[in-house]
């Protein structure tokens, strides 16, 4: 039977836009829908505006460093409204870029929420379209737990639009990358930040030594780390008669209490699978509530695929782009290829940054047997003059049997930039001997990665220890 489109994509984020453009380039008739703005989480309310806020927040420390280098810097002041509005202008610009990319590729954009009516029919707003193949790329959204007073909390979505002036006290609940990134942002912009986390340290899942380095750096920066704590209730305190703003009383589950001006939850995100008709099309979810897909990003419905955060594989923008591109090449370009989720580099834009590629030390011990671990910790040259108390930590994980570098980790300035380059070497299977044979650029932080010579040997765990 004839269809309106060869491919229809639900969700115009990074993965959906890439898939639609590549498929159209292969000659397919492609439509895509979006219910808000084109660009997805990364461009609209994620990594792009957040990285710009990180840049803005770092100037406070740069002004302090400048004095030691002979610069006379007047007492700096900051306008949150200027930063906030300029960041949104860049978001607007990128939204326009994405719109032009779709139009230039010949992809038909339909604004409205897409919902599957059956395996080949999609309702977008009041209209209905049909497609031979369908790609679901609806992403995810932040969640706030069901506690009394949850209506008073915000998420990262609203953090980009806080009113001016910026609140003096901000409480962030969470220990993942979004929580620690925003903690650094607001701390750098002059807020008192309370970071509330259930465990003893931030960034569970990252290398243990790197987690500790970031945790200690956050504490040294003046962020109040409220570890092993859970929020039980949020109570609004009405403004006083002098026209002040409402504040909030945060009550912990163990009876503690403190006040704040804003409570922001960053305790996780969930896939956008509700209300889009997946059950009508025979698309099944996994135990975590994400769309279940195979190694080709195919769902349980024979003509429907899914990519990006809605599948909850590796929730990173470049991964969604890779998955979307692979899907389009496979289904419309006669170039079958699967997305490769091995050795995907990632970064946390906390202050200082954390970045990594490959295995953590803990993962390597469990999967590779004996390993050699090389580390380096030092104060960056820049801060030897300014006196800033910030250190850099670097780490290489090497498989003893093959000499391959299977993990590279860094906490420090420009960690993401450095690890991006090392990711090529790790992906290519470079050995420690090849790292050692590489001449360093002096003086740089990066040269440490090719001058580490002293290892600690970690033997393979016994079977009982591994269990």
Question: What topology does this entry show?
Answer:
Layout (H helix, E strand, L loop, with lengths): L4 E6 L3 H12 L4 E5 L5 H6 L1 H22 L11 H26 L2 E4 L2 E3 L4 E4 L2 E10 L3 E3 L13 H4 L9 E5 L3 H12 L3 E5 L11 H13 L3 E3 L4 E7 L9 E6 L4 E4 L1 E4 L3 E3 L32 E3 L10 H16 L13 E3 L5 E5 L2 H8 L2 E8 L2 H6 L5 E8 L5 E7 L3 H13 L4 H5 L18 E4 L4 H4 L1
Parallel strand pairs: 1-2, 1-6, 2-3, 6-16, 8-9, 8-14, 9-10
Antiparallel strand pairs: 4-5, 5-6, 7-15, 11-12, 12-13, 17-18, 18-21, 19-20, 19-22, 20-21
Number of E-type strands: 22
Q: How many domains in all?
A: 3
What's the CATH class label of the largest domain? Alpha Beta
Largest sheet: 7 strands, mixed
Overview of the molecule:
The chain folds into 3 domains: 5-142 and 270-332, FAD/NAD(P)-binding domain (3-Layer(bba) Sandwich), CATH 3.50.50.60; 150-267, FAD/NAD(P)-binding domain (3-Layer(bba) Sandwich), CATH 3.50.50; 352-466, FAD/NAD-linked reductase, C-terminal dimerisation domain (Enolase-like, domain 1). It has 13 helices and 22 strands. It is globular, with a radius of gyration of 24 Å. With 467 residues, the protein is α/β, with parallel strands linked by helices. Helix 1 (14-25) packs parallel to helix 4. Strands 1, 2, 3, 4, 5, 6 and 16 form a 7-stranded mixed beta sheet that branches. The mean pLDDT is 96. The termini are far apart.
């Amino acid at each position: 039977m004839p269809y309106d489109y060869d491919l229809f994509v639900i969700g115009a984020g990074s993965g959906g836009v890439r898939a639609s453009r590549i498929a159209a380039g292969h000659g397919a008739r492609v439509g895509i829908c979006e219910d808000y703005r084109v660009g997805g989480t990364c461009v609209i309310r994620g990594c792009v505006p957040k990285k710009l806020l990180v840049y803005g927040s770092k100037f406070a420390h740069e002004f302090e460093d400048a004095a030691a280098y002979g610069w006379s810097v007047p007492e700096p002041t900051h306008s949150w409204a200027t930063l906030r509005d300029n960041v949104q202008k860049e978001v607007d610009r990128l939204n326009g870029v994405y719109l032009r990319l779709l139009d230039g590729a010949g992809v038909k954009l339909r604004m409205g929420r897409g919902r599957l009516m059956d395996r080949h029919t999609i309702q977008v707003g009041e209209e209905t379209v049909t497609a031979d193949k369908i790609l679901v790329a609806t992403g995810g959204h932040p969640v706030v737990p069901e506690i009394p007073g949850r209506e008073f909390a915000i998420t990262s979505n609203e953090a980009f639009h806080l009113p001016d002036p910026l609140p003096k006290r901000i409480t962030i609940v969470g220990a993942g990358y979004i929580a620690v990134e925003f903690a650094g942002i607001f701390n750098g912009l002059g807020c008192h930040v309370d970071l509330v986390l259930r465990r003893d340290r931030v960034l569970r899942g990252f290398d243990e030594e790197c987690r500790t380095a970031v945790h200690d750096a956050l504490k040294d920066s003046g962020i109040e780390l409220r570890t092993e704590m859970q929020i039980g209730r949020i109570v609004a305190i009405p403004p006083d008669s002098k026209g002040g703003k409402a504040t909030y009383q945060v009550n912990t589950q163990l009876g503690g209490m403190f006040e704040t001006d804003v409570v922001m939850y960053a305790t996780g995100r969930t896939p956008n699978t509700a209300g889009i008709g997946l059950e009508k099309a025979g698309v099944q979810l996994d135990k975590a509530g994400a769309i279940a897909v195979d190694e080709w990003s195919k769902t349980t419905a024979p003509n429907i695929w899914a990519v990006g955060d809605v599948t909850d594989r590796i929730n990173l923008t470049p991964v969604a782009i890779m998955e979307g591109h692979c899907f389009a090449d496979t289904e419309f370009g006669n170039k079958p290829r699967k997305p490769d989720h091995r050795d995907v580099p990632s970064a946390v834009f906390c202050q200082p940054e954390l970045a990594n590629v490959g295995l953590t030390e803990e993962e390597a011990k469990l999967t590779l047997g004996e390993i050699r671990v090389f580390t380096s910790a030092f104060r960056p040259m820049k801060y030897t003059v300014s006196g800033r108390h910030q250190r850099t930590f670097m780490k290489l994980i090497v498989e003893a049997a093959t000499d391959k570098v299977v993990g590279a980790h860094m906490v420090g300035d420009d960690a993401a930039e450095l690890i991006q380059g090392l990711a090529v070497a790790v992906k290519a299977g470079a050995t420690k001997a090849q790292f050692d044979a590489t001449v360093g650029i002096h003086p740089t932080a990066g040269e440490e990665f090719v001058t580490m010579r002293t290892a600690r040997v970690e033997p393979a765990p016994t079977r009982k220890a591994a269990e």
